[in-house]
């Protein structure tokens, strides 16, 4: 490594397909070196990084660490010691609030400045479902130096959990503007209207509501076609949601209308963006308390491409989508409002271009990853000063 200061980025896993936004935070860093320390390894072929320190590589030590975690003994993987000693980071950046709590011992041991970014489930669902995390977060809030979140809604949530306002900064998640082609949407000769839905099959994504609205409109607009990118990872709650999604498709006879593509790598997502006219993302607060926390990053991607967006007044989504200007927002779980929003857009394709141009401009101004990473580097310098 060169003479730049080093930041150790700590995650549970490096790196699921759905977390490209974490990769971009490291990819565009210029003033700091970045190392990754994580428990598990996934999709390294899509997210190559060096140096990378993974606990599960040493199976015996990883097994011991997992046993300690199950006994609710706060510890960290042994490989973390090797990473810190070899690379000498000055900042430990924990990604997700619960990871921040688990990282407290190593931050203290090596006297590292400690920054924690909250993203979603860690803000709302975790302390709701497991109240012990409210106590743990109080310790985290007292010990770590700074907490980052995507928008003002999430910042208010952290304050409610007990974090001091002066320890919170809003750090938006950005997208690669230059790699997202801007396309003015119009109906082609086949007269088909393609609607895109993207997300892991979790209740907070509101996918059954989206499909129900499409099912209702299908009689009026037989030219509707839908692509769903996402799936269950096998968790019980996601399997339940998958069953709801499949049952909704069956109930409204959408089998010949909906393409289910499963999880796809990022380059396929970008290809699909270019093929669709409308992006539908009706996020909700789920029954277990889970939320988007901030805003789904793919909404930012789709907006940058000039695709009209229909979403909800949920968390920090209104920070990305300005209702009536860059997209349409409706209430959570409001199928009737979703139907109306879709009907309005399909019935008046001319407004697609107005919404798309305004959306692209907003994303260029507020969510360019290269600019936002410079802001993150400034935050690192402030913590070190």
What is the molecular shape?
globular
Low-confidence stretches: none
Order of SSEs: EHEEHHEHHEHHEHEEHEHEHEHEHEHHH
Separate helix tally: 16
- What percent of residues adopt helix (DSSP H or I)? 40-55%
Which sheet architecture does the biggest sheet show? 7 strands, parallel
Secondary structure tally: strands: 13
Distance between the ends: 22 Å
Structural class: alpha/beta
Adjacency order of strands in the biggest sheet: 3-2-1-4-5-6-7
How would you sum up this structure, described in words?
The longest helix is centred in the last third of the chain and has 17 residues, at 350-366. By secondary structure, the chain is an alpha/beta fold. Helix content is 42%, strand content 17%. The protein contains 16 helices and 13 strands. Helix 9 (207-217) runs parallel beside helix 10, helix 9 packs across helix 14 (335-347) and helix 12 (297-304) packs across helix 15. The relative contact order is 0.13. Helix 13 (317-320) links the parallel strand 12 (309-312) and strand 13 (327-330). It is globular, with a radius of gyration of 21 Å.
Which secondary structure elements does this structure contain, and how are they paired or packed?
Elements: E1 6-14, H1 20-27, E2 33-41, E3 52-54, H2 59-70, H3 79-87, E4 91-95, H4 97-102, H5 104-109, E5 113-117, H6 125-129, H7 132-143, E6 146-149, H8 152-161, E7 168-170, E8 193-198, H9 207-217, E9 224-229, H10 236-251, E10 258-262, H11 266-275, E11 278-281, H12 297-304, E12 309-312, H13 317-320, E13 327-330, H14 335-347, H15 350-366, H16 369-384
Parallel strand pairs: 1-2, 1-4, 2-3, 4-5, 5-6, 6-7, 8-9, 8-11, 9-10, 11-12, 12-13
Helix pairs in contact: 9-10, 9-14, 12-15
